[in-house]
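Continuing from yesterday's entry. The apo prediction looked reasonable, so today I'm repeating it with flavin-adenine dinucleotide included to see how the binding region is handled. Same sequence as before; SMILES copied from the compound registry.
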Amino acid sequence: MKRYSAFAIAREATRYHSGWERAWRAPEPKTKYDVIIIGAGGHGLATAYYLGKNFGITNVAIIEKGWLGGGNTGRNTTIIRSNYLQDPSAAIYEKSRFLYETMSQDLNYNVMFSPRGVIMLAQTHHEVRGYQRTAHANALQGVPTEWINPQRVKELCPIINLEGPRYPVLGGLWQARGGTARHDAVAWGYARACSDMGMDVIQQCEVTNIRREGGKVVGVDTTKGAIDCDKLGIVVAGHSGDLANMAGFRLPLESVALQALVSEPIKPAMDVVIMANTVHGYLSQSDKGEMVIGGGTDGYNNYTQRGSFHHVEETVRALNETFPMLSRLKMLRQWGGIVDVTGDRSPILSKTPVEGIFVNCGWGTGGFKAIPGSGWAMAELVADGEPRELASAFGLERYQEGRFIDESVAAGVAH
Ligand SMILES: Cc1cc2nc3c(=O)[nH]c(=O)nc-3n(C[C@H](O)[C@H](O)[C@H](O)COP(=O)(O)OP(=O)(O)OC[C@H]3O[C@@H](n4cnc5c(N)ncnc54)[C@H](O)[C@@H]3O)c2cc1C
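Holo prediction written out below.
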């Protein structure tokens, strides 16, 4: 595949852009692969990419029932940070943030990583204590974060109202190298790189059954026919429970809709990301100028994958207190995705009761930031059959052993 470069853009400009190749192939499935990954979201694609790049395993298919990135990967508010409390979480999220720094060069695809800084606002004394504790933990973990006072919050984000009618801003947890990236580009960049390595990204192909023989996986049935495999990665976020069901085991997950919306585009108004967990809403400004607004999860389990009016009202009301200028904006569109939430708000990267099947799920409301790190760790798990250091704490056995990785403070939105 030809590399993208400034020279290529100049060359194509002189010939009416007639020389660009398809970014990825659209193959029909083969009868057998070494590894099948179900789900062409960021995590599935990143898993496949690092299987190829780090282990030379390229006889891989990534099977997607819709279009690639059409699940949560293309629906999120793109916040990237690694300021988690527990050591295993800080390790995997920081690995991920670090990989985001050079992802555009690594994939030869501009993912528009923008480390503009993330503030998590503290608006109650409970949050002050929680975030100060996280800042201390991060210092020990080698993750640069800082507790900042309200004046510093105002300097970093002049449009904020520090004296909210219900909750004043008491300070914040600041991660200067957190930020955002273009979500579709992350999926597209990985897909292009996987395709370039000879892997098959198969869209519009739903897995309808998982075939096993003697406790071992042998293949999947799909809407494009049966496909055999030696190993299978289930990386389908909100649909993980369904796929586990097909394989004959259960996962400790709940699926629930999480919503977001954007305003009409305006001139640059803020150049940081703000998360306000008490009033509940989070905000950043896209390159197009839209204010990107994250809302909450539904209060009941569902697979609706759409937004709802009462959430918009709740989220906009909360953010209007903190950013009064938002009240003057028109909202353009809203949407929802199905997130997979675990009891301890930490992901699952694990072997399963079926030999050869591995799961990567439970990233809940915060897995976009984890895509490269999760793909890296999942590739290690699939290639070796055992987790290496990054994934070792995230196995399913922790729920039997009571060894939870409690991230309810860092997870960011009301669950
Ligand atoms: C509104 C919203 C805002 C969010 N904001 C943030 C944020 O700011 N920062 C952050 O870090 N995270 C955020 N997240 C969470 C983040 O989007 C997810 O954790 C992450 O994208 C999960 O990626 P994935 O690859 O695991 O799943 P997905 O991107 O959902 O991919 C899974 C894929 O599996 C496919 N699939 C399912 N079943 C089958 C089947 N039977 N056969 C074949 N394919 C199948 C689906 O079609 C889907 O494309 C947000 C999520 C939402 C919904």
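Comparison notes:
- The CA atoms of residues 40 and 232 lie 13 Å apart.
- The pocket of flavin-adenine dinucleotide is lined by residues 38-44, 63-66, 70-73, 75-79, 206-207, 235-237, 239, 243, 258-260, 294, 337, 339, 363, 365-369 (CB under 6 Å).
Will overlay with the apo model tomorrow.
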